Amino acid sequence: MAEQAAEQDEQHESALTVALAFAANLGIAIAKIVAAVVTGSASLAAEAAHSVADTFNEVLLMVGMRRSVRPADRRHPFGYGKERYIWTLLVAVAIFGMGALFAFYQGVQTIFGHHGEEASPTVGYIVLAVSFVLEGISWQQALRQIRAAAREEELPFITYIRRTDEPTSISVLLEDSAALLGLLLAFAGLGLHQLTGSPVWDGVGSICIGVLLTVVAVVLGRINLNLLIGTQADPRIVRDVRTRLGAAPEVEWLVDIVTMTVGADRVLVCARLDFRDGLTSGDVEHACVRLADELREAHEEIDEVFLEPVPRDDPGLRERVVARYGMQLKQDPPPEIGRS
């Protein structure tokens, strides 16, 4: 019950973060579109496209959150947890396709003379200032959630971002960080255009916004691509699982262990164990059940456990283990894949 309550609280917090970002981005997008039309600013037009993309992205994140919590079924025995990563990857594609490319287009057009006269820059400044405040509120919520999660996991902030299997709040934080920097770039482009009378600065600001969005899209895409491919569980969980299995009285040697993230806070554990000689088949069966239960009790993230009895001196098995880890084994497996 406590595990389910904690998971529900985390999902509620993520939903709140996404909902707040959606409301902020929708209002900001409308305001920026109006300001871009009034002022004729390329930087503001790029920022308007950026906010429209972000608003669309929050919808994708909400869809991903709802679909990823569906229970496992016959066709998907490990559940739908990884579907969240697909939708978040689409967010990265949308940031580049809807935001960055439009910003590049606006910037190039403005620099090469295809632009209108800038009018009423004050309207642009007001919209940028209000947008900065609203984006800041959304950014603070995402930052607060990630810091709280990092403290709960007892990890440094950056390390948590690199290891997390829950990319929703990371996506919002990256989007809002890019939005805040983009607003500063738009303000600079608008201001320099007004001060110098040259629209080139406005175009440069738009291109800089495009570069910023491209960087965010690439970072977010890499995070979700790794999660979709299948990453190892938290190294601390792997170490503890290895220690517990290796210390079991029935186990002679931990031959191999493989873990994979199959969703937010869901880990699959597969291990090959050389059980002690003299154990009956019933002893091995009971040991496997007990060890699986102990691992799940020790780590709430562990969802499924598969334990396979094997002889550690099997040459084919040793070859596969060596091929995976890129190591040369002489007599016994090294600590990384053997019993510590």
TrEMBL record:
It comes from the Bacteria. Keywords: Membrane, Transmembrane, Transmembrane helix, Transport. It is found in: Membrane. Residues 19-228 form the Cation efflux protein transmembrane domain. Its main location: membrane. One of its GO terms (molecular function) is monoatomic cation transmembrane transporter activity. It is a multi-pass membrane protein. Pfam families: Cation_efflux. GO terms for biological process: zinc ion transport. InterPro entries: Cation_efflux (IPR002524), Cation_efflux_TM (IPR058533), Cation_efflux_TMD_sf (IPR027469), SLC30A9 (IPR040177). GO terms for cellular component: membrane. The chain crosses the membrane at residues 85-107, 119-137, 172-192, 204-229. This is Putative cation efflux system protein. It comes from Actinomadura macrotermitis.
